[in-house]
Amino acid sequence: MIVDILLVLGGLALLVLGGDLLVKGAVNLALRLGITPLVVGLTVVAFGTSAPELLVSLSAALGGSSGIALGNVVGSNIANVLVILGFTALVSVITTKGHDLRESWAMMMGASVLLIGLAVTGRIGMWGGIVLLLALAAVLWRQLSTGRVDEDEIEGAEPGARGFRIALWLGGGLIALPLGANLLVNGATQIAQEFGISDTVIGLTLVAIGTSLPELAASVAAALKGRADMALGNVVGSNIFNILAILGITSIVTPLPIPPEMLRLDLWVMLGTSALLAPFLFKGIALTRPVGAALLAGYAAYVWVLL
């Protein structure tokens, strides 16, 4: 048991390190190649920051643990709203005025409904993956056409970084990510078996929270710097990308059977938590500390139901 816990912790550490190195290397390489900051922010950074979740889902699916692969995405989307925004709101009030995320929220809801529609068929195969990736392409095209990215805050950009350093960042990230994903999935699977818990529940909780830790740390750090509002955009963007990119790529590589319990509860919880943001975004209501506490309490209740 102790070994399994160490595997999970070691895997998470490697995922965090690998994701950071890959983003820094890819961003600085893209900028050196003359790619505009707008494109870098919407594509390179988006793919890089989701690399840990992608590698975990792929590793789990290829290893026969499709429950972990799906649970990682669905659980991460639930945790993004209830845990990340909950903790961030406790640190600092999240203002919504002046940050028009209504269209992005509609895209997030659309991606969630699309996932549920595909899940109702019982499995997401290659054609389902293609549909998800086509939807991702439409989202990226829309964002590129409207220029929606803060070009002054490209994550990992270091002007003047030398080629040798960029190569080290890329190499380190490409080594650490698959190794960390493998350790995390193996450790989580063993823990699930020892406690008699399904791999779906482990994916929805332990793995989902673990792969969301970098986003949580970034959101809390932004709140401490007086930019708690950044957490909203990060959560909405991450939720869209988790569904369309991670499940799209994973289901093309290998079909994903849908666990019946996920159709009964978890997918609808994901849709409901996404819908929770509507009054805040459309009415300009701030996410205060009591709201943050309520979101965290909601997550605790959800985990209690699962376990």
Largest sheet descriptor: 2 strands, antiparallel
Per the CATH scheme, the topology name is A middle domain of Talin 1
Put simply, the count of helices is 12
Strand numbers in spatial order across the main sheet: 1-2
- Number of domain modules: 1
Question: Mean pLDDT, as a whole number?
Answer: 85
As residue ranges, the low-confidence spans are none
CATH architecture: Up-down Bundle
**SSE order, one letter for each helix or strand:** HHHHHEHHHHEHHH
Query: What is the highest CATH level, the class?
Result: Mainly Alpha
- What oligomerization state is this entry in? single chain
Structural class, judged by helices and strands?
A: mainly alpha
Tell me the overall shape: globular
The N- and C-terminal alpha carbons lie at a distance of: 19 Å
Proportion of residues in helical segments: over 70%
Number of separate strands: 2
Could you give me the name of the CATH homologous superfamily?
NCX, central ion-binding region
CA-atom Rg in angstroms: 18 Å
In percent terms, what proportion of residues is strand?
A: under 5%
Keywords, please?
single chain; mainly alpha; A middle domain of Talin 1; two-stranded antiparallel sheet; 1% strand
Task: Note down, in words, how this protein is organized.
The structure is a single chain. Helix content is 79%, strand content 1%. By secondary structure, the chain is mainly alpha-helical. A two-stranded antiparallel ribbon has the order 1-2.
